[in-house]
Amino acid sequence: MQFDVKALKGKEGIRALTVDAVDIGDVDVQLRAQGYAVIAVKARQAWLGNIFSGFFLGRRAARFPLGLFSQELLALLEAGLTLVEAFETLTEKELRPEIKKILSRLITSLYEGHPLSYAMGQHPACFPPLYVATVRASEKTGDLPEALLRYIAYQSQMDGVRRQVVSASIYPLLLLIVGSLVTVFLMFYVVPRFSRIYADIGSELPLFSRLLMNWGQFMGEHEIPILAGFLVVVGLVIHALSRPGFKAWFELRLQRLPGIGYRLHLYQLARFYRSLGMLLRGGMPVVTSLQMTADLLQSSLRQRLASASMTIREGQSISHAMEKYGLTTPVALRMLRVGERTGRMGEMMERIAAFYEEETARWVEQFTKLFEPLLMVFIGLIIGVIVVLMYFPIFELAGSIQ
Fold first, then answer.
1. How far apart are CA 231 and CA 398, in angstroms?
2. Are strands 37-43 and 13-20 parallel, antiparallel or unpaired?
3. Any domain includes 257
4. Count of CB atoms situated within 10 Å of the CB of 269
5. How far apart are the first and last CA of the chain?
């Protein structure tokens, strides 16, 4: 991946450079080795090139396989290899140059005396903050395999919930896409041609059939501008869906819907509690863990979390702070109090997450069972009405002939 960089080097002053690197951290490492001080970094946008290479050359940017990396590193450490030996083994077996480069830089940092968490922190695109924090906590206890095992279990749970939601959404989404394509085909191709057939019919058409035929005539006369406008609208929608601001706006609107908003709130809390529980079980302080998991919540809940963190820092209990700022539910509140009494707060937070993840999965399954037939009926009615309105004049003409 290429980056446009502004960097400063002694008497040369500020220079604009193009650097081929894996991520921003790799850019910083390369330029510091050459004596540059990085001022600004921006990833170069190469959409057409990426599309061309992806479709015609079969190449795409390699994404760091964090889950597989963690499992392989855990297996090597449990087999008795030292940390450096394990990384050297992973580097030797790796065939992809981008991944091999990252592992080589990690080994270099380890040989320089840096802890593993610091080395991973230099590559934020490959190692998320939660992962780095888990490794950092294990460095205090000296039990990296346990930390890796904990993160693998955490990622498996999160992926399981995500897979359930995605798999439940595939069929309704396909149904909606196919129904929309059929409707567009009828309205933009079939109806205009039927309108030409009915243009010379002298009998009076029913109102809705007449409106449909008028639409067909309008489409026939302005086919190219309407098609161009339709493609522009589709492009704008796709562009909007890729923008973080639009995603945040759409999530906010979804959360205001009755029923769906509450379930999204529970899903966010479940993900938040699971991440927080993993960090607490790894030995991270409560306030630090709260700050690191804040990005898992929407902006309004982040403000509440900041206030809750301040309350906890002042000496109040976690359950009290969570209840005060609306970051819990009746079930979660009681389980938090149990965790405070028993001293197993991290484990209890993971139990809270599991409780609401199972409830969310059941709700998604029930919702899709109800939504799928309703969607089929709705799409069938739209297509059926269009077809009936197109053929209604033929029925009338056949009746008049008889």
1. 39
2. unpaired
3. no
4. 21
5. 73
